[in-house]
């Protein structure tokens, strides 16, 4: 199974915010943006694994700036770490009013852990990740520490359930 670069799977997905995405004051529901982020993370993970994937976890979801009807939100998704079957995708959401000449603002960020599954819904091995830039390498090391700690917690939680 050939290893793949971060750039192989990264995505950019833009959507126009419409009245059905918002409350009566015109603010877009957080859940609508989270859905877009989840879709972006799924595309990244599917491209890397070339298989079906499920969302296993969302971490550090931050709402930094509001989105309104008429805004364009753009999800930037890229892999930060890959385990055996799990892939962590950092999704950054930028928001802009396309009718105003102003730089976009970061509206949300979050880490999505996606797991590649086979036809029986069981986790399957995915290609290793090639990190190239200093930023990719630094983030990979940071997220690997979190992954290893989480593996311990998941194993303990499984043990206490049996
Ligand atoms: C995700 C799922 C397939 C994992 O199954 P499992 O029996 O726990 O499998 P494992 O213990 O072998 O874990 C598989 C991988 O997932 C990771 N994982 C499982 N649960 C996790 C969690 N809560 N948080 C982070 N990672 C998790 C494990 O660390 C492991 O990673 P690795 O292979 O890279 O080391 C299973 O829990 C599931 O189907 N969950 C429901 C997913 C879903 O329906 N999502 C919403 C719709 S897409």
Provide a quick synopsis of the model:
The chain is of the alpha+beta class and 162 residues long.
Describe the structure.
- By secondary structure, the chain is an alpha+beta fold.
- Helix content is 32%, strand content 35%.
- A five-stranded antiparallel β-sheet has the order 2-4-5-6-3. The chain has a two-stranded parallel sheet with strand order 1-7.
- Strand 5 (86-96) and strand 6 (105-117) form a beta hairpin.
- The termini are far apart.
- 28% of the residues are buried.
- The model has no long low-confidence stretch (mean pLDDT 97).
- The structure holds coenzyme A.
- Coenzyme A binds next to strand 3, strand 6 and helix 3.
